[in-house]
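Problem 12. The chain below contains 248 residues. Write out its predicted structure in token notation.
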Amino acid sequence: MIRLRDYTSARVELGRAGSSLPTRALLEFQLAHAKARDAVHLPLAVNSLVLELKQKGIDSVSLSSAARNRDEYLKRPDLGRRLSDDSRARLAGLHSEYDAAFVIADGLSALAVHRHAVPLLDLLLRDLDWRIAPVAVVEQGRIAIGDQIGELLVASMVVVLIGERPGLSSPDSLGAYLTWQPRPGRTDAERNCVSNIRAEGVSYQLASHKLRFLMNESRRLKLSGVRLKENAPSVGDSIVDSKFIGHR
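Solution.
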């Protein structure tokens, strides 16, 4: 017999016990909810990420947003979209002109960043012969902080690798957001996104393939966002989500 649950990890066909859920389904829901909450509050291990990048031969710089702690970050999204004064000063010494700048930010799931950001970036950079700025590792950062970083580094584009909002079956989903000519004030409609990068979602191979295509097309057309269409040749992998997403 064909069951819907064979085709999705969504909570469907859970059954019932009287007027409620079966005990097993209820406990599984509570566990998933706890994992999602843990992912949101998990601190970013900046030193560990910097060491991982160094082992891959990738230069980096450690930065922080204007949010002083996790509680403030969650309550004040605007603070997560701009750098602290110290971080702005740190970037001043790196001022140059780059083809692209990469940002690794905790977002709403540092767990996703710890698991997927460095392996994905390492794979992507292998076949990318561009002038790449030192990777900015940002604590308490949101997507738009990449606009300020890209502008300060005088980068033609910025790609932000960030932990996405955890779902009840995906506490470790990584998103990659690309913006051409980054500067503060860019809107979500001016970005492209490859999302759901994780073991159960979009593979590193497919994500790097899609990102490389988007980056090359963005540079060729000198734009990003809703006007930049993702139609990269298939690599025989799972479906990728590459579109405008405006939830941060």
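Discussion. The chain has one domain: 38-242. Students who got a different answer should revisit the alignment rule from Section 12.3.
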